[in-house]
Design a protein that fits this description.
Elements (H helix, E strand, L loop, with lengths): L2 H11 L5 H15 L6 H20 L4 H5 L3 H11 L5 H33 L6 E5 H28 L9 H25 L6 E5 H27 L1
Antiparallel strand pairs: 1-2
Helix pairs in contact: 1-3, 2-3, 6-9, 7-8
Length: 232
């Protein structure tokens, strides 16, 4: 069964839990899923096994704490340690998917906006000109910054798990907002201060949008291939 099918089945089966057990299980689910270095397939299989076990125990009148114990974090850490690490092939495919998806979306947005402004409002040139070396350097740095952002968010979410004190939603929102603003500001700063080097490339905006669309389709095809490979 593919990861997405496991997640869908998990979502459906959770309706069988009462409110108290559901709250307990969702904390476990969120904490365990935040371990990106573990096999996603194995993680979802383990989560489904835990859910099935909890549903059966609930039918016998038991509470989640009777099964998993009072120290939920320690129990989840033990479960995580038993899950194998993600295969290098899967990690490479995921990184490639994220890169293609990001570059494709960015190229489509730049291409469409540039084409509309130049063709219908006669604002700016009808093509995008950029130094190849600088563009590649900016892309690599931005991808590295995105990786750091994801790691920080995951670590923050894990740190906020299993807290008995009710979290301040406005404070959490402000922290996440500030983190994203720092990320956006840093990426913009990289774009502005990066010196120009490499051969100058000139591409019409309609072609930029077309390349972006092709990259976006390639990302979707890669995701489909990954899914079929996992089923085989």
């Amino acid at each position: 069964m593919h990861v997405q099918d496991l997640i869908r089945l998990n979502n459906e089966k959770r309706d069988q839990l009462n409110q108290e057990n559901l709250k307990y299980y969702l904390e476990m689910l969120s904490y365990i899923r935040l371990n990106a270095k573990k096999s996603e397939q194995q993680t979802e299989e383990v989560l489904l096994e835990l859910l099935d076990h909890l549903i059966l125990s609930q039918q016998e009148g038991k509470h989640a704490k009777d099964i998993f114990g009072e120290d939920l974090k320690s129990y989840c850490d033990e479960v995580i340690n038993e899950i194998p690490a993600e295969k290098k092939k899967e990690s490479v495919l995921f990184i490639t998917f994220v890169t293609l998806n990001l570059l494709g979306t960015l190229a489509m947005v730049i291409g469409i906006i540039g084409f509309i402004l130049s063709s219908f409002f006669h604002i700016g040139p009808d093509s995008l000109t950029f130094p190849l070396g600088s563009a590649l350097a900016i892309i690599l740095i931005d991808l590295f910054l995105l990786y750091i952002l994801i790691q920080i968010v995951f670590k923050w979410l894990k740190g906020s798990s299993f807290k008995t004190k009710k979290a301040n939603k406005w404070l959490d929102f402000f922290q996440i907002w500030l983190l994203y603003m720092i990320f956006i500001g840093t990426t913009m700063a990289v774009f502005l201060i990066m010196p120009e080097f490499g051969a100058a490339i000139k591409i019409p905006y309609w072609l930029v949008a077309g390349i972006g669309f092709i990259l976006f389709l390639a990302a979707k095809a890669l995701k489909r291939f990954q899914r079929m490979a996992s089923i085989a």
